[in-house]
Amino acid sequence: MDRETLQVVLQTFKDFTSRELTRERCLELDERDEYPEDLVNEMMGEELGLHLVFLPEEYGGLGGGAYDVYRVSLALAEADLGIATAFFAISLGTDPLRVGGTDEQKQKWMTRIAEEGLVVAYGVTEPAAGSEVSAIKTTARRVTDDDGNVTGYVLDGTKQFITNGGVATIYTILAKTEDGPSFFVVERGTEGLSAGRSEEKLGIRASNTTQVVLEDVHVPADNLIGGVEGQGLIHAQQVFGYTRVMVAAFGLGAGAEALRIARDYSKERIQYGSALAAKQGFTHSLLVPHAVALEASRTYIEYVAGRLDEGDEGLGTEGAIAKLTATEAGNAAADAAIQAHGGYGYIREYHVEKIRRDVRITTLYEGTSEIMRNTIAMDRWRASIQSRFSYYDDLAVSMDALSESDPGCGGGMVAHASRALNQVLRTAREHKLTRKQYVLFLLGDMMAGVETAACLARRASQIRSNGGKEEGLLFVIDAEAAGALARTWARRVGWDVVSRASYCTAGTGRLGGDALEAVRAFVAPDRFFMAGEGAEADMDLIASRITEG
């Protein structure tokens, strides 16, 4: 999609939501636990055709790339995360076809989805198989003719927590064949296919979530995606870069919308003679830290989306960093928005409590935060060992060079955090600290922090060097604001590295004496202490930009 087409899609969707998907309507759907079939059908109709963004042009779609999908996902989440989830499932359900289907299968099914606006469900999760996809128990038994040729399959099993499970026309179901897990297309109305009751959920109540039960469901052999058994896990892995960017955008959009509501409220709410927005204690604790985390997440998401659109493959770890950072930031922002409203934040009328309930799912589906931390830590651990621990040292060198050319972009702080992380990794190998799973989780957090901080520092330096501006989530980011955002995030990441490094080394009890002193000297908490210089001024600037927005 070209940028002009994307803007038309986004503006058309904005016009639609302002007319049909008001906050009042969203609260009503939430209270009724109601999937708005009429609205979803209209969004997939001729006027909007929002589902077309996720489909290739050759099959009737708009051929949206990763950046386009991110922007649409962000807009959906800002409107209503339940409806966003329904569209996510449609996209996710077509992904096995997109990455693994034969030309004939793509032409048949994806063209129908595009032209008829069909709702799709992705059937992978089971009662005993969530993040561990390989643990599925649903089976696909071969049906053969007299000559031994496979003519079809019989599927048996139960899928759990399936979005669109009770309303889909097409299901992509992962089941175990003799040669391994494989995806199948199953159409609504196929004998033996049924949906269980709708789940009573904490949030995203405008989405339909059910069990999907398969009892002797017969499908023709042509419905085996790709025509070869045993490719299902490969197909699922191939889409993680895209799907995790989508869920990251959900956390980003929901968190940003919650902060906007809190900001607007803070301008109106008078306490002790002045608006809350004028009080540093309010802005610096409830608005600024979360706005910074969200902007760091946005920058990293756009970086990953750009690489995907350039054809880079194997970005599952980058997708995990984007998802972990954005969804945790979105949850924290929504929680702060409730606090920002005081008692009113706990009341449904003010909308932020709904957003808080909705955004909670983003740290659970498409891989929990714990799985993301483990994925990041294991991948970067391997990369560090294979590079003889030059991975994060090289990053530090690039940040030093950036800091030399632009001292105000936070690169120097990121460089020190990167070297400190690398020293922890060296120590972890020498003393076998990664045998402790919680240490891996902490390493994953440190790695995500350092890499997002480096990304934000680079972007800030670009804006500062050319005197440009870009549209942020809560305000327009110019050169001055870009520097303040990057420095503030770099400080937070640096301080987080110090505290987590302390647990990984001293806290485990695995090392002491000279070994512990060596880590302490290299991490050098005093250097991070001095990095606090200018922190208040940066936060003051960011607060003023937020409240002016």
CA radius of gyration: 24 Å
Structural class of the secondary elements?
Answer: alpha+beta
What percentage of amino acids are in beta strands?
Answer: 5-15%
What's the number of helices? 20
Intertermini distance: 30 Å
Helix content: 55-70%
Biggest beta-sheet profile: 4 strands, antiparallel
- Low-pLDDT stretches: none
Indicate the overall shape: globular
Number of β-strand runs: 11
Give the integer mean of the pLDDT values. Answer: 95
Descriptive notes:
By secondary structure, the protein is α+β, with helices and mostly antiparallel strands. The chain has helices at residues 3-20, 23-32, 37-43, 66-79, 81-100, 103-116, 232-238, 240-268, 280-286, 288-309, 316-340, 352-359, 369-386, 391-405, 411-430, 437-466, 479-505, 513-523, 525-530, 535-548; strands at residues 120-123, 139-144, 150-163, 170-177, 180-187, 193-198, 209-220, 270-271, 274-275, 470-471, 476-477. Strands 2-3-7-6 form a 4-stranded antiparallel β-sheet, covered by helices on one side. Strands 1-4-5 form a 3-stranded mixed β-sheet. The chain has a two-stranded antiparallel sheet with strand order 8-9. α4 runs parallel beside α8 (240-268), α8 packs antiparallel against α10 and α14 packs antiparallel against α15. The longest helix has 30 residues, at 437-466. The radius of gyration is 24 Å and the shape is globular. The mean pLDDT is 95.
